[in-house]
Specification:
By secondary structure, the protein is mainly alpha-helical. It folds into 2 domains: 80 residues, no CATH class; 38 residues. Helix content is 39%, strand content 0%. It contains 4 helices and no strands. Helix 3 packs across helix 4. The longest helix is centred in the first third of the chain and has 19 residues. The chain is elongated. 7% of the residues are buried.
Length: 147
């Protein structure tokens, strides 16, 4: 929502993030310009929100006000409140590639595991075993080193 060109959608996101930050720090609005979140280093538990199947816009898919223990997006945790407020005029642009070679390798590995075993624990175990075997196997830079 922060990357939208529509100012109303972007304003909803900025207001929600600033509200979450003020609730977490006990301050209101822009008082806390450099917020160090206590949740920053914690592992966030993913909970599937209730989906509104009759939504006509992406921001109507979930009701953010009804979700308990909601936290701000990890991409903006390091930004101060002033930077968040400036996103009303200049939308957020992330410079993180999401489709690189490492991601493609992991997609292949997860797909292989899903076709061989069922269940989260078994799939996770197979993926961990693959990583362990790759660490234990010798790595050669050329065919001459194999001998």
């Amino acid at each position: 929502m922060l990357a939208e060109d529509d100012e109303n959608i972007c304003r909803r996101a900025v207001d929600k993030i600033l509200k979450l930050r003020s609730e977490a720090s006990g301050t209101t609005g822009m008082e806390s310009s450099n917020l160090e979140s206590s949740r920053k280093d914690a592992v966030r538990q993913f909970k599937v929100p209730k989906i509104n199947v009759g939504a006509t816009h992406f921001y109507e898919l979930t009701n953010l006000d009804s979700i308990k223990d909601i936290s701000q997006p990890p991409a903006v945790m390091d930004l101060d409140n002033t930077s968040i407020a400036q996103m009303l005029t200049t939308p957020l642009v992330l410079q993180h590639p999401c489709h690189n070679q490492a991601v493609e390798r992991h997609v292949k590995l997860v797909s292989e595991a899903a076709s061989v075993v069922t269940g989260y624990e078994k799939r996770d175990g197979m993926i961990c075993q693959k990583f362990q075997s790759r660490v234990l196997m010798s790595k050669f830079d050329s065919k001459q080193q194999i001998v």
